[in-house]
Amino acid sequence: MKQPITLFLIYLVTLTFSSAQTRSLKLDSDVVTNDQVTIKGKVVPYKATAGTQPVWDENGKPIASLFYVYYERSDVSDKTTRPLFISFNGGPGAASCWMHIGYTGPKRVMTDSEGYPMQPYGVRDNPNSILDVADIVYVEPVNTGFSRAINDSIPKSKFFGVNADIKYLAEWLNVFVGRKNRWPSPKYLIGESYGTTRVSGLALELQNANWMYLNGVILVSPTDLGIERGGPIEAANLLPYYSATAWYHKVLAADLQKKDLNDILPEVEQFTINELVPAITRGGFLEPEKKKQIAAKMARYSGLSEKVILEHNLIVPSTFYWKELLRDKGYQIGRLDSRYLGIDRETAGDRPDYAAEYTSWQHSFTPAINYYLRQHLNYKTDLKYYIAGQTRPWDRDGANADRTGENLRQAMAQNPYLHVMIQSGYFDGATDYFNAKFNMWHIDPSGKLKSRLDWKGYRSGHMMYLRDEDMATSTDDIRTFIQKTLPKPNQPAKY
């Protein structure tokens, strides 16, 4: 089915590395292949374009080239009502391969049903891809994937900052949508992890600076989006995640362990809000007996001992939790997905030696994406695919301060069509599910937009789609979200 089309090259620039070796970067290129995939029992033919497109500065000069892969269903001729999904991963510095060959694309990385690596490395058809209902473009920001600045003289400040990132990507998307003739199409942003910061800011930047209005934004494992939650709230909000993790590893009290996860968590959430936050707020002036009562409940809900919790004055860091929960069994647990186990040099210590889940994911994704892009999509290059690129220092101060939660609220207020869905894994300890709910509650303090905000939870971690059962559910949730957010014919955008 694959029919490669000759590489089209407008510009050629060279990247010079410190080793004096040079490799070619195609500033503007595309390679097209055709294929098909069976989704939900139906054959979906598609065209895949792997290519690069320049980033232009304010003077119209190219300063970088971004790599992308664009999938279009090829048996749909009229794109005016067909949704376009624009997909970003996070980091910052993370390549788009995670959601590309892990979640929504037509091919999926080879793993077992729970997301663990298997050999031989590679990809398989994805029967849950959303390509049946939407076209998708996966975008690689500078220093991720094959995307690069054209040379080392380009200031990193053009790219590596909260709002610098948003600004140049919005301009790039304006060009992309124009080139692909997708201005009439309903448009959606989907971002994972730091990608949620990125797409929340892009929602407003696309409206205000590029006059591009969206139908939806999907936040997969969201960051804090600049929403304040310091002090007692920050400390207390981790407890529901601790409970979910303890339940998974079967270390809760027997009466709790026999319950379903969804029956336990509401109780823990209420305790967190109504008792734990006020208790931590009182600090050293909390009565000793009350402190002991709170610690006993925390122990019951977290799988830790009351003694350890009291030693931490009720504030248990997540790094310590990952080391402590299964210490007596000789394991540490994963940060991004606490289902994963690791083995440290020493049982002692207050944090794991390494991220067990991340090394597992790189194990399966890195060979798969390199193989897939070069062999399936026929994009030939000697550039290293940066699955985790260097984007430091990342500016978060001054003009680059993170106000993306407020950006998203403002975009929703200005655009009655715009809806938001949040997707979280219960076992994600980096961008935990309860703080994602907290985001949703505080994006709009007025409460007037809450009918357009929705949250979904899954029994896996940061990349909930790696678990087959959650993959099917989460992609169906996206399909439902699309149906909900496509306006009826002649339905105006107004309050």
UniProtKB/TrEMBL annotation:
Pfam families on file: Peptidase_S10
PANTHER family: RETINOID-INDUCIBLE SERINE CARBOXYPEPTIDASE (PTHR11802:SF3), SERINE PROTEASE FAMILY S10 SERINE CARBOXYPEPTIDASE (PTHR11802)
Keyword set, alphabetical order: Carboxypeptidase, Glycoprotein, Hydrolase, Protease, Signal
GO molecular function, one term: serine-type carboxypeptidase activity
Identification of the protein by name: Carboxypeptidase
Gene Ontology BP terms: proteolysis
Keyword Signal appears in the UniProt entry: yes
Annotated transmembrane regions: none
SUPFAM superfamilies: alpha/beta-Hydrolases (SSF53474)
Transcription in keyword set: no
Organism: Spirosoma endbachense
InterPro entries in UniProt: AB_hydrolase_fold, Peptidase_S10
Signal peptide positions on this chain: 1-20
